[in-house]
Each structure stands twice: as C-alpha cells, then as structure tokens.
C-alpha cells in the first residue's frame, strides 16, 4: 500500500506522530544505556548500525511487499544518484550525531539536536520554496521557549569535551535537516516513491556502508574496542545484546513513522516533532536525576 496515493487520515497521522516521538525518546535513552554498559565506543559504529537494521526490517511488512510486487521496476525510473547521495548524507549525519551524543551527554545533545527544526524550516524555504504556516510558527516558538528552560543548569561534564560535542552535534543536525529536505523532495517530486520503499533503500545502502567500515576496523579490533571496555565498565554481554535488539525494534517503528510523516506532512513538521522529542528527553533526564538525588 502506498501511503502517498491517498490523503492520510487524521488518526493515522497522529498515530505515526506518537510512534515517532516515543521511539525517538527510547532511541536516545537506549544509546546512553549501551554507552554506560561499555559497548558504545563511538568509533565502532555499533550505535549507528541498529538504525539501519531497523530500516531494513520494514521490508518484512506486507504493505512493502505488496507495493514492491506492484512496481518492481521503480529503481530504473528514479534518479539513483540522488538516492545514494541522500543515504551518504544520512549515515554521515547519524555518525556525527552519535559522536555528539556520546561527547555531550543526552540532555545537552537533545537541546542542540532540536535545532533540526530551524534548519529544516530554512532549508525547506530555500530548496522547496515552502513557507511555514501560522501553526508551525507557534510550535517553533513554544518549543524554543521549552528548550531555553531545559538548557538551564546542565553541567558536570568536562567543558572542552562538551563544547566539542555540541559542535559535532550541530554539524550532524544540519546534515539531518538537509537529509529531511532531500528525502521530502524525493517523495514529493518526480516518480512516485512509496515511503516504505525509500526507507528500505536507505537502510540497505547505509547498512552496507556501516558493515564495510566495521569489517575493516571494528571486527578486527573487537576485543580492545568492545570486550575490554565492557569489562572495565562492568557491563553485561546479555544486557548489551538485549539493548541492541530493542534499539533495532525501536528503529523499525521510528523509521516507519518517519518516512510516513515525511511523505504526508513534510520535513518541517517532522522537525518540529524532533524538537518536541528533545523536550521530553530532557524532562525524563531531569526527573530521573531528581528521583535519585
């Protein structure tokens, strides 16, 4: 079923927005748990791979298989260079964001990462010639105020590391916003591409990029990069494996919702949800710190 072929229902949009928000929150928290367990060394790409394995899982959906059977020759009609370029942009943004998360911590990362909505709005205006409607401006204003309060009183981490983490996160955020707009353009202009098909294409190429890198660097140095770090952190291999499975399942749901929303509501509205996710993660982190204080 191609979700772009008919106007989406309000319930479908709201359901996907909720799924996108909840899985996005878990993704950030889950990555931090893997890091605390000693298996999140940033150079390994072990925190990046689950995102793309989750995208690949979309190919198991009956709706994807039905759309594929209905149009097996779609790849020959699209500009493959744009799609490959978008996947390279996606994996680069993911790596930058993952490094930023590890260096800056989840709270500061989410505040900085929420700027994706502003970058998306600017890029959509210049590239797609889209203006924000009044409701979107209102959402931007409310979220900006919320993030301003969230950003107060962070601290505790090494200042140089945090500042570098903020810079890396900003770079990743800009690339993500650009990728949102590029994918929006792929879904709305030219040959009709089902959102799930674009999701699986992205997952396929990005998984290939990650595994190629990992086969050269991560796997040959597995003991030093993973096992020794887990032992030093007192981490559990079983718990780490369980967390990775949850991250893959979360990425599956997150990307089903992401590409659906991108096709039906656009890059800017999806960016607003990312900023709302930042507020929620910061609120959870603040509540957890208060609870153990």
* Overall pLDDT score: 84
Number of strands: 0
Radius of gyration: 19 Å
Estimate the helix proportion, in percent: over 70%
Helix-strand sequence: HHHHHHHHHHHHH
Oligomer: single chain
Distance between the termini: 50 Å
Q: What class would the helix/strand composition place it in?
A: mainly alpha
- What coarse outline follows from CA principal-axis ratios? globular
What count of helical segments does DSSP give? 13
Low-confidence stretches: none
Strand content: under 5%
**Biggest sheet: strands, sense, closure?**
none
Note down, in words, how this protein is organized:
The chain is mostly helical and 293 residues long. Helices cover 79% and strands 0% of the residues. The protein has 13 helices and no strands. The chain has helices at residues 10-36, 49-57, 62-70, 74-77, 80-104, 106-113, 116-128, 134-150, 159-188, 195-216, 222-233, 237-265, 267-292. Helix 1 runs antiparallel to helix 12 (237-265), helix 5 crosses helix 6 (106-113) and helix 10 (195-216) packs antiparallel against helix 12. The radius of gyration is 19 Å and the shape is globular.
